[in-house]
Amino acid sequence: MKKFLALTALFFGIIANAQLDKIYRHNGETIEGKVLKVEEYNIVFKYDGEDTENSLSKYAVEKIVYTTGRTENMTKKIVVKGKDDWEKVMIIEDKAYLGGLKKGDEIRGKTGFISYHTGNTADKKAEKKLKIEAAEKGMPFIFMLESKDINQTGYKGKAFGNVQSIKKGITYNY
């Protein structure tokens, strides 16, 4: 009788476990629970046996395998190995899209004040410097904290000639 009860409990445990969706993260972790909805940038889910809704950025997730067996691919892992991979680095401007990513260092990119850039070229040069610094650290994401342009008269905004662009951000990884 004890063997029968143990086998029954094991059987129902396997069936209960098979009823869970599986979220495969880029960091190698697998989350088992119930996916409630897949939004534009986030996945909303509940852990097994809990009522609290959790949110995870799609950037942190490779794929979801649903209880039906259907697989939904989310994002490809961004691999940044060094300075030469700076173009792969993504800038994220909404904090809500960082769920499940690991916070790194604060970084800064700026153009020299004595330069003859238009507002647009100074902005692109500062962004490139920011991405290069993140790539050197092996970080594929930057959360933008601040972005401003200052011309020689102290005006904050885009202008022509002697524009300094300053960008600050925090790096993130899987």
Can you characterise this structure?
The protein has 174 residues and is of the alpha+beta class. It folds into two domains: 11-73, SH3 type barrels (Roll); 83-173, Translation Initiation Factor IF3 (2-Layer Sandwich), CATH 3.30.110. 20% of the residues lie in helices and 37% in strands. It has helices at residues 2-18, 119-136, and strands at residues 21-25, 30-38, 42-47, 54-57, 61-65, 71-73, 90-92, 102-110, 141-150, 164-173. The strands form two sheets. It has a six-stranded antiparallel sheet, with no helix packed on it. It has a four-stranded mixed sheet with strand order 7-9-10-8. A hairpin with a 6-residue loop joins β3 (42-47) and β4. The protein is elongated, with a radius of gyration of 23 Å.
CATH superfamily of the largest domain: Hypothetical protein apc22750. Chain B
Into how many domains do the coordinates divide? 2
Write down the CATH class of the largest domain: Alpha Beta
Q: What's the pLDDT, averaged over the residues?
A: 84
Strand content range: 35-45%
What does the main sheet amount to?
6 strands, antiparallel
Main attributes of the structure:
174 residues; alpha+beta; SH3 type barrels; Translation Initiation Factor IF3; 2 domains; 4-stranded mixed sheet; 2 helices; 10 strands; 20% helix
Q: Quick recap of the structure?
A:
Residues 1-18 form the signal peptide. Keywords: Signal. This protein has 174 residues and is α+β, with helices and mostly antiparallel strands.
